[in-house]
Amino acid sequence: MSGTPTSTSTTNPVEDPPPASTPAMTSAATTTLRNIDMLRFATAGSVDDGKSTLIGRLLYDSKAIFEDQLSAVEETSRRMGDEYTNLALLTDGLRAEREQGITIDVAYRYFATPRRKFVIADTPGHIQYTRNMVTGASTADLAIVLVDARKGLVEQSRRHAFLVTLLRVPHLVLAVNKMDLVDWSQARYEELYEEFTAFATKLEIPDLTVIPISALHGDNIVQRSAHMPWYDGSSLVHYLENVHVASDRNLTDVRFPVQYVLRPQSHDVRDYRGYAGQVAGGVLKPGDEVVVLPSGFATRIKSIDTFDGPVEQAYPPMSVVVRLEDELDISRGDLICRPHNQPHVTQDIEARVCWMDEQTKLRPGMKVRVKHTTRQARAVVKDLQYRLDVNSLHRDESASQLQLNEIGRISMRTQQPLFVDDYGRNRATGGFILIDEASNRTVAAGMVVSGA
Question: In a designed cystine with 245, which of 114, 141, 200, 302 is the match (CB 3.0 to 4.6 A)?
Fold first, then answer.
């Protein structure tokens, strides 16, 4: 049984923008950092499947923790009566998490190998913290769903796999954990492999990989495990280092939401006018013809500047300053795109939303504020079309409201037009959040299904 992906399609990768250097860095070190790209991934799965232990193992084996941190974890492990160093304590930082032995909040951690840098979101497994899992996975390039080899696929495993596909995370790894507790059984691994791949046929998973591991002992984490010679796939870290993510970004549709207008007042650059923001799609180059929304005025790109100086092209997720040949009235919330490749400019939005608020419920007729890229607008929820049961994938069209952690499809109308793409085409211009105007709380995360 191979652990290789069921389907893969890649193109030549485009590297992430180089990190800013510090004066203390040598030129060799700076050059090395510039050649390392970044992978964002989230861990998910049911309670006690070993997510925090896995992250702790990755941090420990990559030497991304300090000696005093390790000493504190060893001391806490002894105080809790553990006979081993509980690496899960590296990420379960809240006191409630340590007391209950569960993950509640989304813990972000960072580590690096000579090949790639990593940002990890350790998300909760409890059903009541589904909103936290959605938050952690919303910006991920890859998701690792863990299952306990003894328990197999449980309801929450399927729920998180579905949410990963709903959020359009392009790469999914099923990590069959605690193989040491089933005597490294190939038969058990193959049973879970077949069960999950059969379930995955109901979902839209472009790239699926299955890896048997033991996070507690480090088997198949950094090095191939001697306990599982029947597994012929790569270790988890080797896969994370080599999976292609640059080709997952939308390099076709130019989308540049303006975040800030730069007008320096210094005497040398008094005539400087630039538009700062993060490239949300496509490739921008000096000389390109562009149009600015919502005005519709056309112009050309004069130059593209970064902290390190001018560049010849900009692509996601670079943060740059774009200068235009003509002086146009542009402000925060406007969007620069191609004349013949524009997003939907609309006030009528259809979207799937995950309700995240404990104090209120989503009901037709309620008023909210929409934050979409760098633009905000007031909106009213016109209709709740259905509530989705993420366990059975059943659509309840009789539902009249959404409450905490529930997902549904809505239609809403905004006071001002938004510039949206389908979420499946561009996660940056297809995603948004809903904010309660009275309390300023974020109450929902949304994914545009269509704009018309």
Answer: 141
